[in-house]
Amino acid sequence: MKRLISIELQKIWMNKASRILTLTYFILLSFIALIASIKFNIGPFKFHLAEMGIFNFPYIWHFNTYVAGWLKLFLAIVIVSMMANEYSYGTLKQNLIDGLSKKEFILSKFLTVVLFALCSTIFVFVMSLLLGLSFSSYNEVDVIFMDLDYLLAFFAEMMGFFSFCLFLGILVKRSAFALGFLLLWLIIESIIKGFLAFQVFPNSDTDKLFTRFLPLESISNLIVEPGSRLSVVRSIGNQIGVENTKDYSVHYFSILIVLVWTFLFVYFSYKLLKKRDL
Fold first, then answer.
1. What angle do CA 157, 130, 233 make, to 5 degrees?
2. Torsion angle, CA of 265/85/110/268, rounded to 10 degrees?
3. 3-class DSSP state of 45
4. How many angstroms separate the CA atoms of 168 and 269, rounded?
């Protein structure tokens, strides 16, 4: 496995665009820390994000994993390009000629996906821990390590999304078309969600029992938006009579759905590559 990962990392690092996108992704992740410095002073009204409690334990695990999840598109481009370059530069055929089996080839790609997801999770963990220790009002050990399941959900989100991008890269062969297909699939899922919500199950939440099994929807459902969970937002909602009944917890059944999709993406990637004449 070490040899397979080494081969893939060398390919990514030797490609200038992939190298820049990967570095940009982790640099942007670190920019989350800059949120602490955002201040607005409009007359008597003073607004400081850090003082609103976004870096308080254990809320910070929820906030940072959600924000970091929006940046995964940078690595998604790397994953898609990684596969497209295999066809463009002929390295896929050369690897197979040199003795690498198709199963080992897919395994090397999947291991790269897992490595990216793991590095992202570790990076977010360390950054969140440092920010929390610097700004959190609660520094008790049990509070600090509460809600770490958001990191597990984040890892599953990254791995599921990157596996989907890997499958699209093999299916379409061209990075631009693969990303276009990703956008198209997002639109298709939105149409399905809208049809179920407004036509099949109007005035109920029954549609969510079905839409949560869609690949991109299941991935996005892992971590619910954290903004409305803030105490200041809740107090404003209570004042205007809006009751917040949203469930912010991480559900392990949702993680299981994404893991099943991850397996299917990798499995069909292998089947597609196995049948394709290279």
1. 65
2. 20
3. strand
4. 8
Say which residues have a Cβ less than 8 Å from residue 128's Cβ, sequence separation at least 6: 60, 61, 64, 65
When computed from its CA atoms, the radius of gyration of the chain, rounded to whole angstroms, is: 21
pLDDT > 90? residue 158: yes
Model's pTM, two decimal places? 0.91
Contact between 208 and 246 under an 8 Å Cβ cutoff? The reply is no
42's CB contacts (< 8 A; 6+ apart) are none
Higher pLDDT among residues 42 and 97, named by residue = 97
Higher per-residue pLDDT: 255 or 200 = 255
What is the rounded CA–CA span in Å between residue 12 and residue 34? 29
Tokens of 100: 């690498």
Q: Can you name the residues that pair with 47 across neighbouring β-strands? A: 40
3-state secondary structure of 213: coil
Reduced to 3 states (helix: H, G, I; strand: E, B; else coil), residue 246 is: coil
Q: Note the pLDDT of residue 83.
A: 81
153, burial (CB in 10 Å: exposed 0-12, middle 13-18, buried 19+):
buried
The β-bridge partners of 48 are 39
User: For residue 245, what pLDDT band results from cuts at 50, 70 and 90?
Assistant: low
Give the pLDDT score at 151.
97
What DSSP designation does 135 have? Answer: H
Residue type, 262: T
The yes-or-no verdict on residue 114 having pLDDT over 90 is yes
Distance CA 193, CA 213 (A): 11
The alpha-helical segments, DSSP class H, found in 52-174 are: 59-69, 72-88, 91-97, 102-135, 141-144, 149-172
More confident residue, 260 or 178: 260
CA atoms within 13 A on the CB side of 234: 9
